[in-house]
């Protein structure tokens, strides 16, 4: 299947590692002209070089911290100056520290909201007009299975990422007729550094070994294993593709069946 991504201008946020990097690599392999972002310029430079070497694609990078209220403006201005805008925007951000709902304070919520919600909405609004003008665009927000089935000891993530569900659905309805789709992709237990961090936190909280926590977690997944980044990235590529033009306002799971609801 031709995904129709060759020469599409793509921007993936928080893409120097983990799921963001996986999605960036997969889109680049499909021929997208790519920009990645992150907080560490030297790391971004290395990752951009590695992705380009692996895929043969054209990869650029922008240093930005989504916790900075001015980050959306900086990213939008940079990508517009270099690429003339984007056709594909993949919204992504790092996860907040583990903890229970009773651990959360109002101050922590406000501190995390900028990076996880504010900058994403601001940047999308800045880049959306070009998509609408061209009559084609893809906005994909990488979230968490916690927006459908809250994950124990990840209360902050469950809370803030859920806000993006209502926003995505609202925006999808507003821009569907202009050829722009807006969807969310929900990972389950995909084997990344973030997943390992969560396993370590749960091991400490429960007084168990990381191996025991990991084994129990895998046993709770119908497929009996953690997902691979490449599996998740392949789904992201499809949602950003031309054939996926009639999918919008949706939450799609890539979780090995771990969410128990239909």
TrEMBL record:
SUPFAM superfamilies per record: NAD(P)-binding Rossmann-fold domains
Family annotation (InterPro entries): NAD(P)-bd_dom_sf, SDR, SDR_fam
Transmembrane segments: none
Any matching Pfam family: adh_short_C2
Record family assignment: Belongs to the short-chain dehydrogenases/reductases (SDR) family.
Protein name in UniProt: SDR family oxidoreductase
């Amino acid at each position: 299947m031709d995904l129709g991504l060759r020469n599409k201008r793509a921007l993936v946020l928080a893409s120097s590692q983990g799921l963001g990097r996986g999605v960036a690599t997969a889109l680049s392999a499909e021929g997208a002209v790519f920009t990645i972002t992150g907080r560490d310029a030297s790391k971004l430079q290395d990752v951009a070089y590695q992705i380009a070497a692996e895929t043969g694609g054209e990869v650029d990078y922008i240093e930005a911290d989504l916790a900075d209220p001015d980050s959306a403006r900086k990213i939008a201005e940079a990508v517009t100056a270099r690429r003339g805008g984007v056709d594909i925007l993949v919204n992504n951000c790092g996860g907040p520290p583990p903890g229970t709902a009773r651990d959360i304070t109002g101050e922590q919520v406000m501190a995390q909201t900028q990076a996880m919600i504010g900058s994403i909405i601001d940047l999308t609004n800045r880049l959306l007009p070009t998509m609408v003008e061209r009559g084609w665009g893809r906005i994909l927000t990488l979230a968490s299975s916690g927006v459908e089935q809250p994950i124990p000891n990840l209360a902050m993530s469950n809370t803030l990422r859920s806000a993006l569900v209502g926003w995505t659905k609202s925006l999808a309805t507003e821009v569907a007729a202009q050829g722009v789709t807006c969807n969310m992709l929900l990972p389950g237990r995909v084997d990344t550094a973030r997943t390992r961090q969560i396993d370590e936190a749960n091991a400490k909280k429960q007084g168990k070994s990381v191996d025991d926590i990991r084994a129990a977690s895998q046993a709770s997944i119908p497929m009996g294993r953690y997902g691979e980044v490449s599996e998740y990235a392949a789904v992201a590529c499809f949602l950003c593709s031309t054939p996926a033009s009639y999918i919008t306002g949706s939450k799609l799971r890539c979780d090995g069946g771990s969410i128990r609801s239909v």
